[in-house]
Amino acid sequence: MSVVASTDSRLASGLAAIQSEVDAAFDALLPVPDDTRGRLVEAMRYAAIGGGKRVRPLLLSATADLFGVDRTAAVQAGCAIEAIHVYSLIHDDLPCMDDDDLRHGKPTLHKHFDEATAVLAGDSLHALAFEILSDEAIYGDPFVRAELVATLANASGMNGMAGGQMMDMEADHAAYDLHAITRLQQLKTGALLAASVEMGAILGKVPIEGRANLRAYARDIGLAFQIADDLLDHEGDETKAGKALRKDDEQGKQTFVTLMGPDGARDQAKALVEQATARLSSFGDDAALLCDLARYIVERDR
Amino acid sequence: MSVVASTDSRLASGLAAIQSEVDAAFDALLPVPDDTRGRLVEAMRYAAIGGGKRVRPLLLSATADLFGVDRTAAVQAGCAIEAIHVYSLIHDDLPCMDDDDLRHGKPTLHKHFDEATAVLAGDSLHALAFEILSDEAIYGDPFVRAELVATLANASGMNGMAGGQMMDMEADHAAYDLHAITRLQQLKTGALLAASVEMGAILGKVPIEGRANLRAYARDIGLAFQIADDLLDHEGDETKAGKALRKDDEQGKQTFVTLMGPDGARDQAKALVEQATARLSSFGDDAALLCDLARYIVERDR
Predict the structure, then answer these.
(1) Residue B107 β-bridge partners
(2) What does R_g of chain B's alpha carbons equal in angstroms?
(3) Which of A74, A98, B81, B184 sits at 20 to 30 Å (Cα–Cα) from A144?
(4) Which cofactors (chains A, B) (predicted)?
(5) Are A211 and A196 in contact (CB under 8 A)?
(6) Would you call B166 and A117 a contact, using CB atoms and an 8 Å cutoff?
(7) pLDDT digits 0-9 by tens, B114-173
(8) Residues of A with CB below 8 A from B115's CB?
(9) A186 backbone dihedrals φ, ψ, rounded to 5°
């Protein structure tokens, strides 16, 4: 199903808007210098501009919209979280990691450039995320800047995405059950999705005690997202996905699909989406885009 | 020359103190979790604890001491900058980068663990640096936290260390002259050394207009540090250095030594150290440790 056919035009226009805003922001953040760093910045641009669905920036900006946050601040913070996501894809695709040749329908960074450049471009995007968040001109309140950094650093490090990636790499030696797979995915995928919502709330200056429903929504869709990813790997279309699929099956890996069966996994993902949207009922129509996004997350074909 | 013989006991005790404080802080920051992330955290500990000279944390804490900064805050910030330094060494040592087998006299991380773990451990230490700096309990003032993050992110990314590393990788295709090599090293090595001093000044709440002499000192010793590194690569002792040397010569790379000759390079390094220490004259005896450190930087044998 295409985005437009399966969801309403609100989501389609929300995605189109954030995609073009994030691309424009990365373009401005990554001018190619007139020295031998040129290759590095070209590589960063190759990975960061175009191609991505921008689910995380949309999650962030749709949350920020609930609280009337300035659009530029939300888009820049969206770029920060996307820079982390993109760097993680670059490093995950490396030969010593998942050894992937295709990403977003084009050659992976290390195939198009080389491995050393891929390592460095990933590292530079990682640093860029924190450079973006410490821009005084965009986030005047230093408390906001510091809280954004704390949230993103925690979500990406050993207690977040990188920790989940390690658990994933250890899957061969560990007989993970559903509980363990859930924990793994909460770190590997869930932490950054949750951080997207959290950063929107931080920009909205929502006090911690007011974030419970948003956090619950983020937790639910994080899990639904990964179940959908496992289903996509199991039964998706490689051309639409723009990357190699059937990798879990080939490696004999435990996933939500192997543990629950395709139908059980699909039912669980849908139930999580229903639960997630119910969490936002107090926001009424203002949360319509976040609800659309929750549904899109399980219906997407890439 | 050993540290103790070539410099006074003030420097020796300053180095010994910060080495043990940084090791203890990393030990506390990196508890091994009781799940399959254990291997990742063990790898981070392998690289971060023990072995390093801790020049950057000492630069930071000695600068912070000029302004009566709380010791815990200075040591934690020292760990943040050291986490960046250590992650960069892990990634630089990878087969696709410098392909080094030895670091601090022991096998490099990817040799002792594996390449994928080395990529992830580097990434996790990168994130850890920003987790450390956003610890509200240590840096109560959010402006200080935000300024520390901005300084470190900028020094480590494409306009700092990573950018310099890319310029270094491009050296084969580029006929660098002394001006270009100086620029390259200002980014590759100088940026993080300068950030160490800057972060000490930030902790000391020194306004930007009061940092000129400290910045000039940092610039001078950054350059001296790299000249000393090139001399060490050219004529040092591998056992003392704990890593492979003579790599620049083998690769036919342009360095300060090839461009200025060993004697010219040595004279230049010494002149820079004299200039650097003169920058600190207004601090009087309070800056004695920073002056010792400047001299140590060119006299070290590893």
Answers:
(1) B102
(2) 18
(3) B81
(4) Mg(2+)
(5) no
(6) yes
(7) 999 999 999 999 999 999 999 998 998 999 999 999 999 999 999 999 999 999 999 877
(8) 96
(9) -60, -35
* Cβ–Cβ under 8 Å, residues A105 and A55: no
Pick from B46, B108, B131, B176 the residue to mutate for testing the A interface (most A CBs within 10 Å). Answer: B131
Whether the ipTM is more than 0.90: the answer is yes
CATH number of the domain bearing residue A175: 1.10.600.10
For residue B103, give the H/E element and its range: strand B102-103
CA-based nearest distance B162→chain A, Å: 6
CB contact at 8 A, B222 and B56: no
Give the integer Cα–Cα distance in Å for A242 and B183.
40
> If we measure between CA atoms, which residue out of A93, A115, A217, A108 comes closest to residue A165?
A93
Q: Are A2 and A299 in contact (CB under 8 A)?
A: no
* Cβ atoms within 10 Å, residue B13: 12
Residue type (1 letter), B69: V
Angstrom distance (rounded) from CA A86 to CA A91: 9
Mean pLDDT by 10 residues, chain A (302 residues): 56 96 98 96 97 94 97 98 98 94 92 97 98 92 95 97 95 85 94 98 96 97 93 82 74 85 94 97 96 91 75
* Angle B215-B160-B221 from CA coordinates, rounded to 5°: 35
Integer angstrom CA distances of residue A2 from A9, A59, A301, A302: 12, 19, 7, 10
Four-point Cα dihedral A34, A35, A37, A42, nearest 10: 30
Contacting residues of A for B142, CB less than 8 Å apart: 142-143, 145-147
In 10 A of CB B84, how many CB atoms?
Answer: 27
Give the H/E segment covering residue A106.
strand A106-107
8 A C-beta contact, residue B228 and residue B256? no
**Total domains present in chain A:** 1
Instruction: Give, for A259, the enclosing helix (H) or strand (E).
Output: helix A256-279
Is residue B241 very low, low, confident or very high in pLDDT (cuts 50, 70, 90)?
Answer: confident
Quote the minimal CA–CA distance from A40 to chain B in Å.
6
**Residue A58 lies in domain:** 3-299
Q: Which residues of B touch A116 (CB under 8 A)?
A: 94, 96-97, 169
Torsion of CA A134, A135, A140, A141, to 10 degrees: -10
Instruction: Compute the count of residue pairs across chains A and B with CB atoms less than 8 Å apart.
Output: 178
Name the β-bridge partners of A103. A106
Q: Is the pLDDT of residue B6 over 50?
A: no
Sole residue written with tokens 């709380």: B70
The C-alpha of B207 sits at a distance from chain A's nearest C-alpha, in angstroms, of 16
Residue type, B296: Y
A91 chain-B contacts, CB cut-off 8 A: 119-120, 123
- Among the listed residues A291, A271, A265, the one whose alpha carbon sits nearest the alpha carbon of residue A280: A291
* Distance from C-alpha of B51 to C-alpha of B30, rounded to nearest angstrom: 17
For chain A, give the mean pLDDT: 92
